[in-house]
Amino acid sequence: MAEKKSIDSILGKAKTTVTATFSESERKKGGRPRKPESEHAKENRFATYFSPSELSIVESAANSYGMTIGKFIKMAAMRMAKMENK
Predict the structure, then answer these.
(1) For residue range 56-75, what is the model confidence (pLDDT) as tens digits?
(2) Domain assignment present for 62
(3) How far is it, in rounded angstroms, from Cα 50 to Cα 70?
(4) Residue 5: how many other CB atoms lie within 10 Å
(5) SS3 of the chain
(6) Which domain does 68 fall in, by range?
(7) Number of folded domains in the chain?
(8) Torsion (CA) 23, 26, 29, 35 in degrees, nearest 10
(9) Which residue has the higher pLDDT, 64 or 13?
(10) In the prediction, which pLDDT does 59 show?
């Protein structure tokens, strides 16, 4: 009976062993790519609480300048800080 030969011996290739472990091999991470620094969450946020009557006053003032309430509050706070520094 004929001896069985492996495909590697027929083709003349030597068997190679896989020695690289999972941690040694370079693997691509799944998921979405990292955001650039400019798109990270903003820092130093503050909450301001208004009564309904105070909120209507601030809201009407912001609307008169064509701004959002948050932008209006930020602008007013920056103006006050600049006035105190003079």
Answers:
(1) 999 999 999 999 999 999 99
(2) yes
(3) 13
(4) 8
(5) CCCCCCHHHHHCCCCCCCCCCCCCCCCCCCCCCCCCHHHCCCCCCCCCCCCHHHHHHHHHHHHHCCCCHHHHHHHHHHHHHHHHHC
(6) 52-86
(7) 1
(8) 120
(9) 64
(10) 96
User: What tokens appear for 4 in the block?
Assistant: 């069985």
20-64 confidence digits (pLDDT tens): 565 666 666 778 888 888 777 777 778 889 999 999 999 999 999
Q: Does any domain span residue 72?
A: yes
In order of 48, 72, 74, 76, 78, the CA distances from 62 in angstroms are 15, 6, 11, 10, 15
Tokens for 12, please give them. Answer: 């003349």
How many other CB atoms sit within 10 Å of the CB of residue 73? Answer: 17
Residue 38: inside a domain: no
